[in-house]
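I had to read the description of the data format several times before I understood it. The format is easy to grasp once an entry is in front of the reader. For illustration, here is how one protein appears when written out as sequence plus structure tokens:
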Amino acid sequence: MKRFFGLVLLGCSVIACRDAPLPASSTGPLPQADAAPPWAPKAKAPTPPQGMVWVPEGALIAGTPPDRLPRIADEEMPGEQVVLHGFFIDIFAYPNEEGAIPQTGTTHTQAQSLCADRRKRLCTELEWERACKGPHNSIYEYGDRYRSDACLTGRAPRMLPSGYRPACRSEFGARDMHGSVWEWTQSRWGRGTEAELFTLRGGNAAAGELVGRCANAMARPPETISSQVGFRCCMGKLNTTEVSLHIERGVPLEQRGKVERGIARGLDAILPAAVRQTLAGYGAWRISSVWNWHPIGNVQLVVGGGCAGYAPARRCGVVVADLTGGAPALAAWVWAGHYPPAARVSKDPRRLWVYGGDQMSHFRQAVLFEWGRVRVGEVERNVRPGAD
């Protein structure tokens, strides 16, 4: 499936606003987009106002590339390069005082007004992300490897004094961007909805590895008042580039009427070696059913079910493949016993049930799509196909 994405560029041409996308690797660091040629003169950074830091002009690798996980495909740009000019950002969330508790309970309009009272403005969400990722486009403000202790993420939100987490700091000097309040930005939620929603960044939640990323975001109506929502201010010329994603959702689970040979060969080629060895003892594995699975927007997985051998002596199972890179890539294998497998999705399309059975009972097993990863749950016995 093709992924659709884009940028709304206001006040400048595409050529003037960005370069071509940079390549990304899941095993190495992202390119150092801020690196200048050796002959280029080094610009002198302006002196920041008190309580602010300077974020220089440079390239933001916005969102998360498709080959990096965790990732939310229908909420994040796919690692596209965006050049932003320099700006100032507050070191801490409002009132931007070390040792103070961040202010919460403000609507989006109130947050804008409080920034304006200080001759500042709300940051755009991409300015916020740039300040968090730093010059090396790190996944987290402190680096590419998740550390729950750095920002105290992955736990129930606590309103700690600003500066309590010294390791929660970006290379540009912005602090406590995660582990504390969610922060209003002035950016609308450009992710395939007409509703009046604005983007928040930062915050905390139990899923710390996911929420603690600089690319993570959340949408709320502008009149939202919450004890977990605050804001921080920026200053300087506004960067007008915004996130704009086209979301393609598709039917959550759709069975293909015919098993194409090309799909069958592709799924057979990615079987794990241990699975292939077991099936070989029963004969050739034949795929009898194929489904398209859309657990979230802009994601398509292919599910192929089949058996090796003939009843009653046969082994059956399901292979789940990710089509992100074009060719099928193994996401999961699920044994279905002696019965040709059936597949259904629950009310939440991120949960796929695989039904099978053996001499003991009928059973089912959950296949869970979580932040770009696929995880197989425990076997539940005495459950027939069609049960919710």
User: Anything to note?
Assistant: Residues 1-29 have pLDDT under 50 and may be disordered. The two ends are 29 Å apart (CA to CA). The chain is about 10% helix and 30% strand.
